[in-house]
Amino acid sequence: MAARAALCLAGAALSLYALHVERAHARDPSYRPACDLGPAASCTRVFGSRWGRGLGLVEPLLGRDSVANVPNGAVGVLFYLLQGLLGAVPGRGAAAVLLWTSVASAVASLWLAGVLVFGLQDLCLVCITTYLLNGGLLALNWRRWQRLRHLKTT
């Protein structure tokens, strides 16, 4: 439980920080957050790109101004909140939701990591850290699922 809480708190904090950076830079283009380490290591550039909203997939399908084209950080806050709260709920139903939302976050993390490396050619430490946190939650949720599955079969 403590590991889940730590992962979710860190993920939510980084997601809120990403939202803050995106908004602060939109208000003041000269704003330079701590996560901007140089031209090839700029979280501002990543968060402000088309890939920083809707995984970069919503805009070409529904348009930039679509209500579904929300910042990835906002989705992250909801994801980590769900993971933290549902992690305290016992049972297979909660475990299934936790596992499948973790699988979705892992797929999204792999997609965005590919965009980061091959498309944007950037090093975003906030992004990479959230990918690692998502991997940690996937591992926790997989172990929980396996443990519950084992209890049912014995």
Overview of the structural elements:
- With 154 residues, the chain is mostly helical.
- It contains 6 helices and 2 strands, in the order αββααααα.
- It has a two-stranded antiparallel sheet.
- It starts with a helix and ends with a helix.
- The mean pLDDT is 95.
Features:
single chain, 154 residues, mainly alpha, two-stranded antiparallel ribbon, 6 helices, elongated
Main pleated-sheet profile: 2 strands, antiparallel
Amino-to-carboxy terminus distance: 24 Å
The beta-strand count equals 2
Number of helices: 6
Strand order of the largest sheet: 1-2
Radius of gyration: 17 Å
Q: Which stretches of 5+ consecutive residues score pLDDT under 50?
A: none
Strand content: under 5%
Sum up the overall morphology in one term. elongated
Order of helices and strands: HEEHHHHH
Q: Look at the helices and sheets and give the structural class.
A: mainly alpha
